[in-house]
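User: Could you write out the 3D structure of this protein bound to S-adenosyl-L-homocysteine? I've included everything you need below.
Assistant: Certainly. Input first, then the structure.
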Amino acid sequence: MTLPLVFDAPRRGKPPTHLADLTLVERRAAVEEVGEKPYRADQISRHYFTRLSSAPAEMTDLPMTIRDRLAGALLPTLVTEQQALTCDEGATRKTVWRLFDGALVESVLMRYPDRSTVCVSSQAGCGMACPFCATGQAGLTRNLSTAEIVEQVLAAARVAASGELAGGASRLSNVVFMGMGEPLANYNAVLGAVRRLTDPSPAGLGLAQRHLTLSTVGLVPAMRRLVEEKLQVTLAVSLHAPDDELRDTLVPVNTRWPLSEVMDAAWSYAAATGRRVSIEYALIRDINDQPERARLLAELLRGRLAHVNLIPLNPTPGSQWTASRRESEQEFVRILRRAGVSTTVRDTRGREIDAACGQLAALQATPVDH
Ligand code: SAH
């Protein structure tokens, strides 16, 4: 087992500003600042979001003399591939990205017959300390910027389009904020990424809001703020236990915002959006997989706009916990379905490259000086 290297929080600057951090209006202002006409912002945005290109040489509708200047101002390199690993017969790819200050984050691209989904990180590390999650063990390094999140998606879109994955070329269709970090603890940057990913070109990538999923441990004030955004993105709540006593240990932030408050906020979101809330529940052998807990969970969700995603626990290094027995899993599903609660068991893509749920744990690198 490799131990995560943890450093004292170093002084870190901000990542350079990238066009994906800015609205189209802000991009036009930035272009004028370097002495060019505002419409150049639309052109360079189209290269980025429609053609998925950041290379000045490909921007043939821009005069040679200004390509480098515009790219220098608006397209700094924010993520550099450190490592790429493929599994599931070539249909899943995990990438480890090195950020400008040496921090490492991971994203995972999954090609399905009917869609391509990327799972992105919203923070380097995570401060939520859930004991069964690998990312939770090393603590939080820092928040990612909007563009650092968007860049993970753009990189995945390029790979999907290139046809490198088994199944052939595809259009990236779905984004789940289920990589490293707690998205709602980095609210502004994450919401910026949601806007950039869903705004139509040239402002953004033009994905459907419904094809984005924000996953949270249950940060109630941020969930309430999200209700006000009037978005159609899917909200996923990492529940993992139907009672406060157990949830306090599995999702420590529950001691701050207990189940009743988390569920209230979730139902407000469902009411405001008309969308089913995803309830994430990692089945951990003999910890939270008893029939009694399935019944409690059914009570909590009966008649609500909810869908349960059961995730067989992906064991993490150093933990004694493991996935539920097959019989317990089946019984758990049966109890929920009998109560009329829509339930599925999530597939376990990426397991053998440590790219499955809760396994992302890029070691923190030594920050480089600037
Ligand atoms: N911080 C956010 C998003 C990141 S994790 C959240 O907690 O929702 C995405 C999902 O994977 C969460 O539901 C998380 O609880 C779950 N998960 C974490 N570790 C896991 C593990 N070892 N096995 C299975 N699921 C895990």
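Residues 128, 130, 132-133, 178, 182, 215-217, 238, 280, 282, 311, 313-314, 316, 357-358 surround S-adenosyl-L-homocysteine (CB under 6 Å).
User: Perfect, thank you.
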